[in-house]
Write a structure and sequence with these properties.
Blueprint (H helix, E strand, L loop, with lengths): L1 E4 L4 E4 L5 H11 L8 E4 L8 H5 L2 H9 L4 E4 L14 E2 L2 H17 L2
Parallel strand pairs: 2-3, 3-4, 4-5
Antiparallel strand pairs: 1-2
């Protein structure tokens, strides 16, 4: 797992060759990012299922309660398969946009 500090979020991306290894690495570090916006970019080379993505759902809800955001980036995904408030997008640019939009919504009290 690789981590890059950006201006208003941390970018976490996979260098592992399996989802289970990546997710295990992520869970070990996740508490360190409690007060930060996260973008998790999962390699398209990793074989991943809908159930694997849903493992991030409880973390996403906790991030929202902490007034931060979690966005998953994965190119080949049907977002209609997931809850509306679960942020999964195909590109990093869209993930950055969601981080910005949610920050504005929090400032406005939504």
């Amino acid at each position: 797992m690789l981590i890059e500090k950006k201006e208003n979020y941390k970018l976490i991306y996979s260098d592992e060759n399996s989802f289970s290894k990546f997710y295990s690495s992520f869970l070990k570090k996740e508490k360190e990012f409690d007060k930060e916006n996260l973008i998790v970019q999962i390699s398209n080379e990793i074989n991943i299922t809908k159930e694997d993505f849903l493992l991030f759902l409880s973390i996403a809800k906790q991030k929202k309660e902490n007034s931060t955001s979690l966005v998953i980036v994965y190119k080949d995904i049907n977002i209609d398969d997931f809850p509306e408030d679960f942020n999964i997008v195909p590109t990093l640019v869209e993930a950055e946009d969601i981080i910005q939009m949610e920050a504005i919504e929090r400032e406005l009290g939504f």
